[in-house]
Amino acid sequence: MEMLVPAAVLEVRQHPARQLKLVPAAVLEARQLPASQPHTNGIEFNFSPQLRVHFDKQTRAMWSRWAPEPRPCFNPALLAAIRAYYDFLGASGARVDCYGEEHPIEYVVLASATPGVFNLGGDLDLFKQLIDVRDRQGLLRYGRACINVLFRNYIGHELPVTTISLVQGECLGGGFEAALSSDVIIAEKSAHFGFPEILFNLFPGMGAYSFLERRVGQKGAEEVITSGKIYSAEEMVALGVIDLAVEDGQGEDEVAALIKRRARGRNGLSALAAVRRRVHRIDFEELLDIVQIWVDSALRLNPRDLKLMHRLVSRQNGLGESQQVH
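Given the sequence above, the corresponding structure tokens read:
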């Protein structure tokens, strides 16, 4: 099964120099060795200014927190940093060295470093530019980069780990898809979830349908995707989309408490997650086929649709400017 996107596949004919600037293959294929430094109860790895990772020895959890700039969305540089981290994680054998002491990795946690925003999803400004110049290959390259990292998290990095998404704040579009790729989703009560793509005549094409359909069935998945509604964390729990809603400010403590509760049966529960992924199997090829449908659909958007997309770009910009990174 294809997990990595070969450079030969990503190397497509350039649409003037503008495409190279928008979605450079070199950026998406970046391989970075992380700088490390001591962290409370563990070690921290710095993959890029937009992504920091730390391992907590007490919970045996590897935490990643993204801090996208200038907007809280998945820009190409952030995707490259996540991919470098996942390569690092996949090669670890579920072990990490903390200055001479080797420790097992049992949990992998997705979280945000931007207060009030988990992630707003796709880089809509980039989408609009690529659509304007009719750059199908640029859109496809971006989509492949997205599903590559989501798929890697979905399959647990081929390690005996449990993946957890901790959602604090706005979780929309591709950010929601990223959260759905984990085994367990915990959200603080002020978090909001939704897929706004239908509002500008598109659909979320990086795994939303596949992940949701496995959780809540066809009817439930299509209701969430086509409604354009913004849901509260408690509504998401009631629908069976996420696992737990906790009080604001208690997210990290709840992750630690969950890990403690699962300690005795962790091996069996981790294996059960692998069984669930096998029974409700999602192949990379399924996600890729959907990305191609998304690209073709995006290229059919009319000027009115693009105007509505631009309004959401303004919202991404506004949230990016108003939030301060920890």
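The chain has one domain: 26-322. Try to locate this feature in the token string yourself.
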